[in-house]
Amino acid sequence: MTSLVDMHKANGKGKQDDGGATQILVGHSWQGTRLATHLSSLAKITYSQDLGVVDFYPSDQLAVLFINEADLIAGNSYKRRAVKFRQITNLQRGVVMAQKTGFTSEQYSKLQKFVSIELGLAVIPVKAVEEAAQLLANMAMCEAKTNFNPFRVRRKKSNIPDQLVLSTMEQVPGLGGVRATALLEKFGSIQGVAAAGEKAMAEVVGIGPARVVHKFFHVPPI
After folding, report:
1. Which partner from 20, 61, 86, 174 sits 20 to 30 angstroms from 13, CA to CA?
2. Across the strands, what pairs with 211?
3. How far apart are CA 159 and CA 44, in angstroms?
């Protein structure tokens, strides 16, 4: 059976064509949607019926699951998709993109905790499908530059997951980039921060922020 990575390579996704357009593999169910239409104006896209739960592949090394406003409002039905997504992306990198609006703030908070703590995936909030399309195009472009720069010194991990994990941490109330970075450096991951005691976090970011962060991870929203 041909793997998604092999299929990606065969189609040249995550690369740039001769015209310089970044290419993205898109789930067939997105054909005709506003998101796909906008994305097609930013990057070259190819639809596939073989992506399963994955919605987008900005590159053969990065998979994206998109949870829209309606899915969040509907309740916890997204959890099954997220779990399946985590299972099939354990050999690659997975990112969850969710639509955070005035109607979904509470639901987004629940999703963020579930996906970040229990599944260990980065979560990125977007307000509109146009923003999501722009972010996907940026991901693909960044991946293409990273993967095909002959002068790049290869590191153990690409900087993209680190940026996405940091972006997820910055969504926690009381944290900005500096404090989020400090906590990740100290505890190693979002799961590590969630498992840390309030006193241990206070040594890194101070008592007030530590209390807010600890409450975020351990007190369910009303």
Report:
1. 86
2. none
3. 24
User: pTM higher than 0.85 for the full model?
Assistant: no
The gap between the terminal CA atoms of the chain, to the nearest Å, is 47
If asked whether residues 14 and 114 sit together in one domain, one would say yes
24: which 2 tokens? 């993205």
Q: Are 94 and 65 in contact (CB under 8 A)?
A: yes
Look up the domain containing 196 and give its range. 172-222
In a domain, residue 146? The reply is yes
Number of H helices, E strands in the chain: 11, 6
Structure tokens at 17: 């064509």
Flag whether 73 is in a domain. yes
Amino acid in the structure at residue 21 = A
Per-residue pLDDT of the chain (222 residues; tens, 9 = 90+): 334 444 444 444 444 444 445 689 999 999 999 999 999 999 999 999 999 999 999 988 889 999 999 999 987 888 999 999 988 866 567 889 999 998 998 899 889 889 888 888 888 889 999 999 998 998 888 777 655 444 344 444 444 446 777 777 877 777 888 888 888 888 887 778 888 888 999 999 999 988 888 888 776 555
Domain count, the chain: 2
Residue 182's identity, in one-letter code, is: A
Task: Give the number of residues written for the chain.
Answer: 222
